[in-house]
């Protein structure tokens, strides 16, 4: 007998909604039921390609009986309102990172989900990447001894992709601190599986024409054991995928293109930049095919007493006293990474298994982001007490 499939409604058909649509299409437990999107061009593209209805606002999706869950992929500042509305309509929720822009908003979302008996998952982040969860399991197994430190390095063109105005305004959640650093925090927290004790960070605004944080270096210390060193720059100079065999973040081959994102923006008005965002990144602009390699988020090296474990394009590379071994990442019958988000939803809703990346997990990542922003601003170490994270035990 076939297992129950969940009807999924996509809220927002921009970059995130477009990629999740492709992942949903290939997931055996998900049925793409509907979408909500104010842009008529994106709605038309979705309806033509998916044969499913696209509504102009979220209410149309929430009123549908064939929608069991929604994926909220609207701009950060709308996450709280959309997640709460969905929960109150009795729909399970996946909400994109950052979960919200304040801890109070995260709390409201957690409360709405609990009050209405629905599942709340925060994703996608690269903490769901199969190679990351494989490293988590290897560390947890103790096979390589205790965790010492986690190092991450990601250099991208993030700041020069076409942007909405609020994405270049730190006061409204713009820049890398709320958009890109959550990936690194989730990866580190997934592997360390401990509460964050403190952070010390610096952040830089290096282009007055894009006046928001585009570079960040943070030292995250975990309670009891382990640190993570997070380095990120989005200034479109060095591209760290050069160190990854020119495999892009999503797992597809890419070509060297230093400075191309800056050149694409040259001379565009803000209105033209907004349109370029839809044409370059909106629903339907990206390949609908699953990537041939593993997703990743820059370089990741995890140091244990007995080995360094590095994320490679197709597996985890273990550097031990005995040599170097590539451990292949177990295959998935779905889109690696984003399909794992959908599987976490299916596991929670259909099989009753507690979600790992639940609202409380997402809220702790937001708290860590806010602490990084505070540490960078005040030039001091910021301490977090996060007892609630301690209850997260990885599924092994
Ligand atoms: N996990 C990832 O890898 C990943 C990648 C990209 C974006 N994101 C996250 O997804 C969210 C959206 O980012 P994006 O890059 O897709 O932005 P985007 O601007 O490309 O897309 C957002 C879409 O939401 C639509 N929208 C705006 N108001 C709406 C409303 N009231 N109802 C329904 N739709 C509405 C917009 O018209 C737009 O098409 C952000 O929070 C971002 O952090 C995550």
Automatic annotation (TrEMBL):
Residues 263-276 have a biased composition (Basic and acidic residues). Residues 253-262 have a biased composition (Basic residues). Residues 249-276 are annotated as: Disordered. One of its GO terms (molecular function) is nucleotide binding. Residues 8-124 form the Gfo/Idh/MocA-like oxidoreductase N-terminal domain. InterPro entries: Gfo/Idh/MocA-like_OxRdtase_N, Gfo/Idh/MocA_Oxidoreductases, GFO_IDH_MocA-like_dom, NAD(P)-bd_dom_sf. Coiled coil: none annotated. Residues 134-238 form the GFO/IDH/MocA-like oxidoreductase domain. This is Phthalate 4,5-cis-dihydrodiol dehydrogenase.
């Amino acid at each position: 007998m076939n297992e129950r499939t969940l009807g999924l409604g996509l809220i927002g058909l921009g970059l995130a909604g477009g990629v999740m649509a492709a992942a949903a299409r290939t997931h055996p437990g998900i049925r793409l039921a509907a979408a909500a999107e104010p842009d008529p061009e994106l709605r038309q593209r979705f309806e033509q390609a998916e044969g499913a209805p696209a509504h102009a606002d979220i209410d149309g999706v929430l009123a549908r009986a064939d929608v069991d869950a929604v994926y909220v992929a609207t701009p950060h500042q709308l996450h709280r309102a959309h997640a709460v509305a969905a929960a109150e309509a009795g729909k399970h929720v996946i909400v994109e990172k950052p979960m919200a822009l304040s801890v109070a908003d995260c709390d409201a979302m957690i409360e709405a989900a609990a009050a209405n008996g629905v599942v709340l998952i925060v994703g996608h982040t690269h903490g769901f990447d199969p190679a990351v969860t494989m490293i988590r399991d290897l560390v947890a197994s103790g096979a390589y001894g205790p965790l010492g430190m986690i190092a991450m390095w990601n250099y991208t063109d993030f700041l020069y992709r076409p942007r909405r105005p609020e994405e270049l305004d730190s006061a409204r959640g713009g820049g890398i601190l709320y958009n890109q650093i959550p990936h690194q925090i989730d990866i580190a927290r997934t592997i360390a599986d401990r509460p964050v004790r403190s952070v010390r960070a610096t952040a830089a605004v290096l282009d007055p024409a894009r006046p928001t944080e585009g570079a960040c270096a943070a030292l995250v210390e975990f309670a009891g054991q382990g640190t993570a060193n997070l380095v990120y720059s989005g200034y479109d100079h060095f591209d760290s995928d050069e160190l990854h065999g020119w495999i892009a973040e999503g797992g597809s081959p890419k070509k060297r293109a230093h400075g191309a994102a800056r050149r694409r923006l040259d001379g565009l008005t803000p209105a033209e930049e907004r349109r370029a965002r839809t044409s370059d990144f909106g629903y339907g602009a990206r390949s609908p095919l699953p990537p041939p390699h593993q997703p990743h988020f820059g370089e990741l090296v995890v140091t244990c007493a007995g080995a360094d474990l590095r994320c490679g394009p197709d597996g985890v590379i273990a550097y031990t006293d005995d040599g170097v071994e590539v451990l292949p990442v177990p295959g998935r019958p779905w889109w690696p990474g984003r399909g794992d988000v959908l599987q976490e939803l299916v596991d929670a809703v259909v099989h009753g298994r507690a979600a790992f990346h639940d609202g409380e997990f997402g809220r702790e990542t937001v708290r860590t982001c806010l602490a990084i922003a505070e540490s960078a601003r005040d030039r001091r170490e910021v301490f977090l007490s996060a007892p609630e994270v301690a209850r997260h035990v990885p599924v092994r």
